[in-house]
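[step 3/7] inverse_fold.run input=structure_tokens len=188
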């Protein structure tokens, strides 16, 4: 009975189970396990010569998880957080645990803000990315829309949003730049 009213009896001991079930507990003693040599800690076999890897120098304040006492020994440095998106990322790490949805939602929002910031940087620098070089030509020449028109795809329901998500930030940054430029030119 899965849900008896009476308290269930105590779980049987290992000796009782071994006597009742042939072969039960054959791997309880580590000496009897065939994989025991692999389970032994042997740092020389792995090539690790350290107790703790050498700490990579921190050239700028990195985001730190509130769940860890220290920064990881090695971390990425190719794209340091900056601007509004960097502030959002630092807030996510400073205030919320990685177990909270708010942490990850803030990081997703920071990514979206970073897309807008990158678009504005492109426009203000005069080096706008070439949309043809990003695969637009192969969409036309290699039948790009065909696989997306079948209803078997999982992303069929939100396919209509893809152009908005892809081109939306660039269009918004362009419109914003034009509005700011017009306002600046109208000033006396």
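[step 3/7] decode complete -> sequence:
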């Amino acid at each position: 009975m899965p849900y008896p009213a009476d308290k269930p009896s105590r779980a049987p001991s290992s000796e009782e189970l071994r006597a009742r079930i042939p072969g039960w507990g054959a791997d309880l003693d580590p000496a009897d396990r065939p994989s025991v040599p692999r389970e032994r800690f042997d740092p020389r076999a792995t090539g690790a010569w350290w107790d703790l890897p050498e700490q990579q120098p921190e050239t700028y304040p990195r985001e730190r998880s509130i769940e860890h006492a220290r920064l990881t020994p090695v971390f990425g440095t190719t794209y340091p957080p900056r601007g509004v998106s960097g502030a959002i990322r630092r807030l996510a790490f400073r205030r919320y645990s990685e177990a909270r949805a708010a942490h990850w939602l803030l990081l997703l929002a920071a990514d979206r803000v970073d897309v807008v910031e990158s678009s504005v940087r492109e426009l203000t620098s005069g080096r706008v990315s070439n949309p043809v070089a990003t695969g637009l030509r192969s969409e036309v020449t290699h039948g790009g829309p065909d696989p997306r028109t079948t209803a078997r795809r999982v992303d069929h329901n939100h396919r209509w949003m893809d152009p908005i998500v892809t081109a939306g930030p660039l269009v918004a940054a362009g419109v914003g730049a034009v509005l700011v430029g017009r306002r600046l030119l109208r000033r006396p």
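[step 4/7] annotate
The helical segments are 14-20, 36-39, 43-46, 83-95, 101-125, 132-141, 145-149, 162-186.
The chain has a mean pLDDT of 83.
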